């Protein structure tokens, strides 16, 4: 299977670069967490990060959101190097991160207040909150508190809050990992729709190969860590929009899923082999 950084048709106009990661390394003391990370992401791309636990995917997101600083190298968003300020992006985590003492709409209004900084009235902010809740099919639950909502509803509210911030870049760290299969599929479809209709650039972490294939334009496969490295950047060869039933029943899907798993497993086996070499060399 052909694997390239970017496989674009000669007559296809490339979107501008949204994110550029140049020779990034990160660690604590002598412990390397990420090594030699290089990546370009174009506007509107849906990038999925895959790899075993401990490969540095979530750490990479912390660097991307400016919660951590690279040991060396640099990260640029919209051609600007990250500074002390959090870049213009929205983040959705697995644990929803909603304030339990606020209703769904109040959680969104809180984000809107920060965005508009007194430029809109309270009534206008609540009207906007209603619009974003409707966008994620949660208008009926505007007055509910997080404790009164299911996991899927809470995650929809978290996505609505992220969208309300108006950022072009959406960062999602295993946002559907704790959800039941049906709700997970519904939210996958929702995020795909947001990516395509609102032209959001999405960076999405998952351990699920099928989820990655359904969502991604490209899959960035991380090696086992430490240190985590990028093994391959793999173009997903299925055009969007993708019909789940037809895609999952095809031989091409099965072959591509197996290929992804083989890439990840190969990285794991190579890491284990290196560990054995270290042990043997150390006289263990």
TrEMBL record:
Span of domain ABC transporter: 19-249
Q: Topology with regard to the membrane?
A: Peripheral membrane protein
Gene Ontology MF terms in the entry: ATP binding
Q: Does the keyword Thylakoid apply?
A: no
Keyword Glycoprotein belongs to the record? no
Instruction: Give the InterPro entries listed for this entry.
Output: AAA+_ATPase, ABC_transporter-like_ATP-bd, ABC_transporter-like_CS, ABC_transporter_ATP-bind, P-loop_NTPase
Q: What is this protein called?
A: ABC transporter ATP-binding protein
Q: Sorted alphabetically, which Pfam families does this protein's record hold?
A: ABC_tran (PF00005)
């Amino acid at each position: 299977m052909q694997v390239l950084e970017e496989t674009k048709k000669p007559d296809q106009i490339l979107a501008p670069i949204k994110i550029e990661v140049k020779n990034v390394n990160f660690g604590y003391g002598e412990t390397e967490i990420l090594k030699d990370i290089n990546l370009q992401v174009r506007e509107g791309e849906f990038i999925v990060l895959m790899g075993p636990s401990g490969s540095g995917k979530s750490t990479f997101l912390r660097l991307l959101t400016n919660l951590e600083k690279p040991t060396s190298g640099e990260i640029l968003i919209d051609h600007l190097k990250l500074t002390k300020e959090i870049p213009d992006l929205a983040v959705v985590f697995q644990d929803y991160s909603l304030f339990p003492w606020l209703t769904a709409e109040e959680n969104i209004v809180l984000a809107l207040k920060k965005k508009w900084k007194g430029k809109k009235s309270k009534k206008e902010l609540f009207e906007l909150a209603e619009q974003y809740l409707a966008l994620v099919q949660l208008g009926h639950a505007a007055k509910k508190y997080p404790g009164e909502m299911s996991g899927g509803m809470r995650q929809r509210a978290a996505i609505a809050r992220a969208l309300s911030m108006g950022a072009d870049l959406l960062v999602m760290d295993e946002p559907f990992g704790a959800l039941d299969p049906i709700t997970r599929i519904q939210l996958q479809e929702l995020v795909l729709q947001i990516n395509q209709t609102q032209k959001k650039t999405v960076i999405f972490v998952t351990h699920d190969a099928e989820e990655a294939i359904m969502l991604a334009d490209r899959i960035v496969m991380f090696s086992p860590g430490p240190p985590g490295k990028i093994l391959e950047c793999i173009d997903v060869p299925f055009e969007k929009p993708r019909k789940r039933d037809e895609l999952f029943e095809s031989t091409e899907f099965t072959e591509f899923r197996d290929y992804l798993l083989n890439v990840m497993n190969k990285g794991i086996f190579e890491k284990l082999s290196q560990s054995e070499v270290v042990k043997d060399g150390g006289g263990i």
